[in-house]
Amino acid sequence: MRAALALMRAAFRRHRLSAAGFWTWSVSVGLYQLLGLAFVWVASSRLSAGAEWLAIYVYGVFQGATGLAYAFGAWTVFFASRYVRRGELDALLLLAPDPRVSLPFADFEPVELMGAFAGYAIALIGLRAGTRLTVPNAALTLVGVAAGGAATYSLFMAAATLSLYTKQSSAAISFAMDLILFGQYPMNLYPAPMRTIFTWVIPIVLIANAPARLIDASPGLLAAVLATATLALAGANALFKHALGRFIRHW
Amino acid sequence: MNGSDAGSQVVDRTAATRLLRMAAILARERITPAWDFIMSSLGSTVLLIAQFAFLRGLDPSGDTVRYLALARTAYAFSGGQHLERFLIDGYMSGSLMMDVITPLNPLAFIVARSFAGMLASAAATLPGVLVAALLLGGMPGMSWPGAALYAVSLIFVWLASTGLALISSSIGVALKQGEAAVQLRVFITQLASGALIPVYLYPEWVQRVIRVLPFVHLADTSVAIALGGSVSSMYAQIIWSAALLGIGIVLWRRRLARLDVYGG
User: Fold this and answer.
1) What is the domain range of residue B123?
2) What is the number of structural domains in chain A?
3) Is B136's CB within 8 Å of A191's CB?
4) What is the mean pLDDT of residues A73-77?
5) In this structure, how many other beta carbons lie within 10 angstroms of the beta carbon of residue A35?
6) Contacts of B43 in chain A (CB under 8 A)
7) CA A66 to chain centre
8) What is the complex's ipTM, to 2 decimals?
């Protein structure tokens, strides 16, 4: 744990931004989030009265969850195939800390974490638009963002595991990044076949739609969402450990 | 026709052929490695399907999806951020010097690059629009004259966006805020063109503002033409594209002259 925290501190130091860099980053991230928010807000409020708060809320939870997953999962998303291709993973495996702990902290991305905060703020705007902004709902939203982040991170981990098997392809990770985009809109608006696929085949519903339902749900759903997120994380980690073992045996 | 006229025509034709070849090489450079290009096209297809499915759920009539299918196609002909990034990075790093000293007119070289960007952007976007529209019942029905006028209007979309790219990259270089200029241009053009949100969905007062701005000619005007508009709808698009291109060329001519004299 001490090693993980030290790695995280180093990541923060590495990402210290200049004033100009911060301005450029703010413009890029802020405008991107604003574009998505404008699309969701205008389309839902003008086309279906009363649908806007949920659309904004789901979009916010999605941005928060994926921001969180990118912050800690940058290595799986951007670097996993490079680590394997260049042989850098071999060197990392020689280090003392477990790579499942050291990699997320070593490649921590503070900028993505700011994107997650922006997503949380958008979700609160959605709650406000639906006159549901209360302290318990704000806290439940935070839990939802964390659970969605864990589900997304697990999906990235599973995709990165394929990089260990195929040795060089980053296609699985790119596809996983694209696929999760289906989770940013309320699933009830999708046609029935798509809803079925994204609920039971590739459970993208876990990224934002299920966590977004926590505010109106019974404690049973809260327990179910948290248990699913934990299971997803444990499963993806086990898969990765298995792939790592196979990778080491083929050294 | 005297001898010198014939000679200059031959030179012009050779230069045009050379520029087209250059555009083809640059376009090929953008779509290789093929696997990366396919994956990025797949990414934009997935995003389009998600957005179209969301809109279809909100508007079961399918009008919004049909509008966006045409608007996205038109916007794809603007060529993305390729030209701006090339100009800003080239100016900042000094690599644009190579273009200034080539025997070809550097502005013609910039136009070839813009054309290549447009080809690559259209190739990456069109399959996605087609798949998403087919999947979600948003294939727009067009008359033959409407389709022909729409195709012509896409040329002006490209010219107008080339002008905009020249203007925004010139501002970005002047302020030494290249990335911010690109992002701001993308933000404004996406919101105010109709490529992301159909213009008719905005509140009345926003529509009135948007319709007097030039950005609306990057998508919304072309959609109106395709869905039964007349040639007269294209006049404003033609005038704006000429104006934007003119301003952009003047700004970059000055930049290039400066690069020639001071080396950036």
Assistant:
1) 13-262
2) 1
3) yes
4) 75
5) 17
6) 174, 177-178
7) 3
8) 0.84
